[in-house]
Amino acid sequence: MKTHLMTETLSADRILVWDKCHNGMGNLNDWGIGYEYIFLFKKGSPRIRGDRVNGVISYKHIGYFEKTVHPTQKPTGLIKLIILKSIGKEEGIVLDPFMGSGTTAVACKQLNKDFIGFEINRAYVNIANRRLSMQPESLEKWIS
Ligand SMILES: C[S@@+](CC[C@H](N)C(=O)[O-])C[C@H]1O[C@@H](n2cnc3c(N)ncnc32)[C@H](O)[C@@H]1O
């Protein structure tokens, strides 16, 4: 039933690739796997914002200061870029069913966008909440 609902209302024809700009971990005697797939679901027929760009996005991995203990934390800048290109600043609600350390939530808060997130691991929920609490209510308040 849940699967039916997902395919009825959301489609994942936007499968992007994150090029991490390095060879990645793993077998040093074989090809480097310095990339990850990004499954981007959409509701309705949203258009890409601004110029059309390639779905392979080269973006450097997170630096020391952004890193939490979550093993697969994504760069906040990468997630912000994907949100802005995919649904723009004004519309939509972002849903991330696998929040991890809360990068999507942090990105949304910085962009002043509404979001819904799920995370099964309580320790990661705590990390996400801590990261969120460190964000100002609205960046616009900072500069106005
Ligand atoms: C690839 S990580 C997400 C990393 C995240 N984008 C970040 O930047 O920190 C996937 C997360 O999904 C969570 N997860 C796995 N199964 C889940 C489920 N059934 N419901 C909710 N969360 C789940 C894992 O605990 C893990 O933290």
Can you walk me through this structure?
The protein has helices at residues 2-9, 76-87, 103-111, 122-133, 139-143, and strands at residues 11-19, 35-42, 56-58, 94-96, 115-117. It has 144 residues and is an alpha/beta fold. It has one domain: Vaccinia Virus protein VP39 (Rossmann fold, 3-Layer(aba) Sandwich). It starts with a helix and ends with a helix. The relative contact order is 0.13. The model has no long low-confidence stretch (mean pLDDT 87). The protein binds S-adenosylmethionine. The site of S-adenosylmethionine has 14 residues, from loops.
Bound molecules: S-adenosylmethionine
Low-confidence stretches: none
Q: Can you summarize the main beta sheet?
A: 3 strands, mixed
Estimated helix fraction: 25-40%
User: Strands across the major sheet, in which order?
Assistant: 2-1-3
How does the helix and strand content classify structurally?
A: alpha/beta
Portion in strands? 15-25%
CATH architecture: 3-Layer(aba) Sandwich
Query: How many DSSP E strands?
Result: 5
The CATH superfamily title: Vaccinia Virus protein VP39
Enumerate how many helices there are, as a single number. 5
CATH class category: Alpha Beta
Query: What would you call the quaternary organization?
Result: single chain
Succession of helices and strands: HEEEHEHEHH
CATH topology: Rossmann fold
Globular, elongated, flat, extended or rod-shaped: what is the shape?
globular
| Radius of gyration, CA atoms, in whole angstroms | 16 Å
Distance between the termini: 48 Å
**Arithmetic mean of pLDDT:** 87
* Domain count: 1
